[in-house]
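A.,

Following up on our hallway conversation. C-alpha cells first:
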C-alpha cells in the first residue's frame, strides 16, 4: 500500500520552507500559541485568516451529540494548513477542535494567501499537492467507513501514519494518542478499538505501552491489511 504519510510529510516540510521566505508572510504574519486541551476555533478566525501549523498537534472533528460519537476529520501537525475549505469557499467552518499538544500557528490574511497562490508558482504547486492529499485522505476515510470493519480500519490507519526511517518503521503523529482519539479516527468507540489493538499486540504487529504505540512488524501489518 502507498504510504500517504511520507508523501504528506515531505510536502508539509516544503510548504513551511516556502512560507518562511514569502514576503506576504513576513509582512502580515501573526503567531498564535495554543495550550493542550484548548479549542483553537475559539481563538482563531477562519473566515478572515489562514493558518500554518509550526509545531504541536490538534484534531478537527465532528460529534453526534445524541450518541456522543466522534469522528476525526483531520489530525493537524507541523506543516499542515487550515482551513483550506474556508479559503476556497469563503465560509467559516462548523468543525469542533481540540489541541492535543501545545501548538504554535502562524496566521496570514486569507487575501494574502490567495495572492501567494496566484503569484508564487512553487507555493501554488505545493498547495495543490497538499489539497489533493487531503482530498484523497477524506476519500479513503469514506471508503473505510463504508466497507471495512474496525480491525481493518485500524490497520489502514497505522499504515498511513507509518514512516520508514532506513529499515525501521516508525509510527508518527498518532503514536502517543489516547485510545479514544484512535477510535475517533476510525469511527468507533474506545472499547471496540481496544480489542483491535490487543489483537495486533498479540499477533506481534505492534507494541503497546500506557502512552505509546510502536510498529513492531510493518510487513506483517501490510500482510494483514492485504488479506
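Then the amino acids I'd put at each of the 227 positions:
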Amino acid at each position: 500500500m502507498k504510504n500517504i504519510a511520507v508523501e504528506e510529510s515531505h510536502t508539509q516540510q516544503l510548504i513551511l520552507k516556502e512560507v518562511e521566505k514569502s514576503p506576504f508572510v513576513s509582512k502580515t504574519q501573526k503567531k498564535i500559541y495554543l495550550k493542550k486541551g484548548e479549542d483553537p476555533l475559539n481563538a482563531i478566525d477562519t473566515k478572515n485568516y489562514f493558518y500554518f501549523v509550526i509545531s504541536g498537534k490538534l484534531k478537527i472533528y465532528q460529534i453526534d451529540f445524541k450518541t456522543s460519537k466522534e469522528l476525526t476529520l483531520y489530525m493537524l501537525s507541523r506543516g499542515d494548513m487550515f482551513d483550506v475549505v474556508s479559503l476556497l469557499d469563503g465560509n467559516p467552518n462548523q468543525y469542533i477542535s481540540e489541541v492535543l499538544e501545545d501548538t504554535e500557528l502562524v496566521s496570514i490574511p486569507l487575501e494574502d494567501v490567495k495572492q501567494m497562490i496566484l503569484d508564487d508558482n512553487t507555493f501554488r504547486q505545493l498547495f495543490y499537492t497538499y489539497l489533493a492529499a487531503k482530498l484523497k485522505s477524506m476519500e479513503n476515510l469514506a471508503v473505510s467507513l463504508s466497507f471495512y470493519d474496525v480491525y481493518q480500519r485500524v490497520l489502514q490507519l497505522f499504515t498511513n501514519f507509518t514512516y520508514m526511517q532506513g529499515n525501521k518503521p516508525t509510527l508518527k503523529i498518532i503514536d502517543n494518542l489516547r485510545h479514544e482519539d484512535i477510535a475517533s479516527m476510525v469511527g468507533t468507540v474506545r472499547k471496540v478499538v481496544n480489542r483491535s489493538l490487543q489483537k495486533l499486540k498479540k499477533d506481534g504487529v505492534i507494541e503497546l505501552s500506557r502512552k505509546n504505540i510502536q510498529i513492531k512488524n510493518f510487513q506483517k501489518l501490510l500482510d494483514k491489511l492485504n488479506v
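The chain has a mean pLDDT of 87. Curious whether your intuition agrees with the design.

B.
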